[in-house]
Amino acid sequence: MSKINIKIILKDNREMNAELFPEKAPESVNKFLELVKQNYYEDIIFHRVIEGFMIQTGGFKSDFSESDETSPIFGEFSSNGFKGNDIKHSLGVLSMARTMDPNSASSQFFIVTKSSNFLDGEYAAFGKLSDRESEAVAIEISRVKTESKNYHDDVPVEPVIIKEIKIL
């Protein structure tokens, strides 16, 4: 398969470039691209931010209302019986967020800001930030001040908002 590159553009015009890996996680990449094409991620916030771990998005709009539900997909990781995905959760990796149900991933994803090998084989990694500048932006986001809000922890006090995600 050919390379698929994306650009995540924030409301403050910071950007993160990433490459997606459909050969490793085809259903995850297809689901993500389907949502990007529908402009699903416009005005969506990073709602869970943990320094030294990851930043998560895809679940809440900038007014902290829940984003529209989307259908879940099969979890493409080894502990769920999927054999093709050997992507390690190192700095910059994009991975599908989920509940305890291994097949519950839908619209939420996270970007790893520090190598987290305990996630390997447990979550469907599907892409990776493609340059140091993008990694630096993700780490900057992970360091913002957070609070608890509406029963959710680690929510940025000042919202970090996605303006759009582009397929390049």
From TrEMBL:
GO terms for MF: peptidyl-prolyl cis-trans isomerase activity
Enzyme Commission number(s): 5.2.1.8
InterPro entries from the UniProt entry: Cyclophilin-like_dom_sf, Cyclophilin-type_PPIase, Cyclophilin-type_PPIase_dom, Cyclophilin_A-like
Domain (PPIase cyclophilin-type): residue spans on this chain: 3-167
Keyword annotations from UniProtKB, A to Z: Isomerase, Rotamase
Stored Pfam families: Pro_isomerase (PF00160)
Recorded catalytic activity of this chain's protein: [protein]-peptidylproline (omega=180) = [protein]-peptidylproline (omega=0)
SUPFAM superfamilies assigned: Cyclophilin-like
Tagged with keyword Metal-binding: no
Recorded family membership: Belongs to the cyclophilin-type PPIase family.
Protein purpose: PPIases accelerate the folding of proteins. It catalyzes the cis-trans isomerization of proline imidic peptide bonds in oligopeptides.
Protein name: Peptidyl-prolyl cis-trans isomerase
UniProt lineage: Bacteria, Bacillati, Mycoplasmatota, Mollicutes, Entomoplasmatales
